[in-house]
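Page 47, continued from p. 46.
Same chain as before, 194 aa.
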Amino acid sequence: MAYSSGFTAVTGATYTAAQYNTNTRDNFTAIWVYTTAGDIAYATGATTLARLAAPGGGGYYLGHTGSAPQWVANYRYKEYLLNTDVALNAGEDALRFRIPAGLNGWNVASIAASRKSGTGIPSFGLRNVTDGVEVLTTNVTIDSGETDSSTAATPAVIDAAHDDVATGDQFAIDVDVAGTSTLYALVEIGFLKP
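Result:
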């Protein structure tokens, strides 16, 4: 419903029920689009408002589509290069890293891998060494002849029971399968604030 600014009061005018309904009741309805705490109103036209619902949790920032606002997940990405021009080797602790204070209380929300070249299907695990748990129930893989995990036949699966991180946690990237002549293997981990 659009806001109506058609009524102009003059001395001696009678304000009818229809005018009240249009200019008072309906206008309040047009400008009061909220239904839940945290909602935001935004213009969809010169006289029309719409409601952007609260995202229902923390970890989001306000972005824009070009025509309307939107909530965008607040991801932080970390990339780890496991090798360069020497073929990748299988084994645990291919790389270790520490969780900084800025990610305390966040969750591992995504994982991806890429390589410059190689064949076979390399497979990478992610382990929270501090807690002694595997973070993935299905490893991230790169299909043979491919260079990125985004096209893998079997996508990685994060274990929601073990995805949380805390300041100082030690994490390890394990190379469970190295593939053949895998060069410049890179693992990208996305963290999301819940």
